[in-house]
Amino acid sequence: MTVGVxxxxxxxxxxxxxxxxxxxxxxxxxxLAVLAGVGYRLWLLRQAAPPTNSDEATxxxxxxxxxxxxxxxxxxxxxxxxxxxxxxxxxxxxAVAGGPSLLGLRLPTLALYALFLLLAWRLTLRLTGDRWFxxxxxxxxxxxxxxxxxxxxxxxxGYPEMNVAAAALALLAVDLATDRRGPSADTGxxxxxxxxxxxxxxxxGLMLWVDPLVLPYVAATGAVLVAFRRRELWGAAGALLGVxxxxxxxxxxxxxxxxxRNPLHAVLVASGANASAGWADRLHGGLVLGPPLxxxxxxxxxxxxxxxxxxxxxxxxxxVAAGTAWRVLRTADSGPAEVGPGAxxxxxAAAVRLALVLAALATLGAYTVSxxxxxxxxxxxxxxxxxxxxxxxxxxxxxxxARRGLRxxxxxxxxxxxxxxxxxxxxxxxxxxxTATHATxxxxxxxxxxxxxEARHAELVSTLRQLGVRHVRAGYWTCNRLTFATxxxxxxxxxxDNLRPGFDRYPAYRREVDSAxxxxxxxxAGSPLAGVLDERQRVxxxxxxxxxxxxxxxxxxx
Length: 558
Description:
- This protein is 65% helix and 4% strand.
- By secondary structure, the protein is mainly alpha-helical.
- A hairpin with a 2-residue loop joins strand 4 (544-549) and strand 5 (552-557).
- The model is unreliable at 1-21, 337-341 and 409-413 (pLDDT under 50).
C-alpha cells in the first residue's frame, strides 16, 4: 500500500527541532503535560477514585499476606492465571506504612503510570524525532477516561504494568536494532548492550507470568530484533536473553511443572472460550464498542453514538500506518540519516512502527473473536488497554500530513488536494484530543459519587467494629473488600442471593466463618440478598436483629 505522506529522511521522521526558544517551549509544555497526567491521577487516588471492588481487594489481601510473611502467592487468589506482581510491589508499602490501605495499594500503579508516560514519550521521539508530536502523545496519554484510569490505577491484576512493559520492550528493540556495536565494542559498552538484551528477555518472560494479553507486543518487538540482529542472537546476547526470559517467567514455569496445569487453558476460559456469543455480538463488541471504550473516548460505562467515530477511523489509521511504515522499510537506507548516539535508522524506526501496528491488529482480532467481546463488551473492553502503546505509530502519518501535507509526487500540481488533506488531518487530531478530553471530564464528574460511596463503606467498617462483629457472610462484591478494609479483623465468606455458599477466592476465610458461632450477614441496601434476608426476618420474627446505616443492612443473629 502506498500512501502519499511525506516521510522525513531521518528514520525517526521529522527533523531535529531548532535550538533555542521553541525547543525550550516544547520541553516545558511536555513536562507540564506529564505533571498534569500524574497530578490528575494522584488527585483521583486521594478521592478514592476510581471505585474499588473485591477483585482489587483480593490483590490487596495478597500484598498484606506477603508483607506479613504469611504467604507468597504466584497467582491471583482463586485462579491459575494472572500473576501477583502488583501485590509484591504493594507489600513494601504496607510494611512501611504499618498496614494496608487503598492508597498504599495504588501508589505502585501510579508510579507505573508515570513510568509509562515517560517511556511512551521517549519511544515517540525515537520513532519520529518530532518533539511536538511527542508532546501530543503525552497530552493524549495524560488524559484519562473512566476505563483508562481503571486500567492504569486499579490493582486488579495485569493492566497497570502491561503498557509499561510493552513500551519498554519497544524502546529496547529500537535501541538494540539501531546500535551496531557488537563484539568489537569496548568492554563497558558491550556489557551495557548485553544488559539491554537481558532486560528485554526478563520483561518478556515477566509479562508471560503477569498477563498474556501483552504477548502480541512481545512477539512483534521480538520479530524486529530477529529481523535486524539475528546473527547477534546466535551468540551470547541470545543466550542471555533466553536465561533472563526464563527467570522472568519462573513463577509460571515452576507452578506449571509442579502442578501439571496449563495456565493458557485458564486464560482461554476467562476470555469466554467456555461460553457462547453470536458473531454479530462479537463483531459489535470487538470492532464498534471496544476501540472507543478501550482507548479512552467514552463516558463512564457507556459510549454515546457520536463517540463511536473512533471505531470507524481506527481501521483506516491501521491501514495507513502499516502502509507508510512498510514503504519506508522497503525503500529507506539501513544506516541512520544523522550521526550521533540518538540517531535511529529509518528502517528500524519504520519496522518498530509496523510492529506496533501489527500488535494492535493482533490484539483487536483476538479480542473480537473471543466470546467476552459479545457477552460483556463494556467491562471486557479493558482487554484492549494495550492499544494505547500503538498510538504513536497510528497517528504519525496523520501528524505528518497535518504539518506538511501530501508528497508532491502524490499531488502533482494540484495543491488543493494537499490543503484538503491537511485540513482533514488537523480535524482528526483535534477531534481525537477533544473526544478524549470530554471523556476525561465526564469521568471526573463521577468522583463525588465515588467518594460518597467510599464514605458509606467506611461507616460500615466502623459500625461492624463497634458491634464487635468478627465474622460475616455477604455477596462476592462485598466480602474481600470488607476483609481488606479491616485488615482481616473482619473475615467474610461469600454467599449468593439465595444464601448458598458462593465463590471464595481465599478458602481459609470460609473455614474460619463456618467455625464461628453466629456470623452476621451484610448486604447492600436494596440488593437481592437484602431482600432474601428481609423475607427471612418477616417469616421468623426475632431471629435476626437489623442494624441499618446509609447504603447497608447488617443482620445480627440472636
